[in-house]
Amino acid sequence: MLEVASKATLEILTNRDLIAIDQDPLGKPARVLSHVGKQWILVKDLAGGDKAVLFFNEDMGPVTQRVSLRSLGIGGRGSYVVKDLWSHKRSQVHDRLTAFVEGHGTAIYRVSRPRDIPSLKQSHVAATNSVTDTYVEPGKSTTITGNLVNDGTRSINHVALTLSVPPAGRWSRSRARGRACPAAQARARPGS
C-alpha cells in the first residue's frame, strides 16, 4: 500500500544508505553488542572494514546511548568518519560514538576508516534535553536541562541552546548550572 504511505515512510523505505547496509556484499547479519533494560546496540560488519551501528530505545522517554569504537572492533589511534544514516551528515569521532535516541526511536550510523579526515572538520555531537514539565501554566516556570557530548577531536566553540515557544508564550533568560550563560562563552571540548 505504498500509494497511501506517508512521506516519512517513503523516505525510510527509499533511504539509499540504509539499503546499502541491508544489501552489503559481505552479507553478515547484525549482532547484539549490548542489551541493557530497554536499550539495544547492534553492530554489523560491512565490506571494506566499515561498521553499521544501530542504537534502539524501546522505552518511552529519550536516552543517551554510547559505544566505544574498540568494542566495535575498530578504534585505537586516529579518528573515524561517522555518517548519520537518517540525516546523511558526516562527522568525526575519536574513541566513542554517542547517540541521543528518542523514546521508541533509533539512531543508525556508518563508521568508516579515515579517508579524508583533514577535510572533515565537523565533530560528532550528541545533544540531549529534558523538560521538567511539558505544560507550564501562565506565571509558572519549569526547568529545561541540556547536555552536549563531543565525541570528536576538535573543540566546538559558540555552543547555543535554542528554545521554541508557541507565539503566545514568553520565556526569560537562559541559565546553565545556575548561572547566566551567554552562548558565545560556551565551549565543548573533545571527549566531554
Automatic annotation (TrEMBL):
Gene3D superfamilies: Golgi alpha-mannosidase II. Coiled coil: none annotated. Signal peptide: none annotated. Residues 179-192 have a biased composition (Low complexity). Residues 37-111 form the Alpha galactosidase C-terminal domain. Keywords: Glycosidase, Hydrolase, Signal. InterPro entries: Glyco_hydro_27, Glyco_hydro_b, Melibiase_C. Residues 171-192 are annotated as: Disordered. This is Alpha galactosidase C-terminal domain-containing protein. It comes from Nonomuraea angiospora.
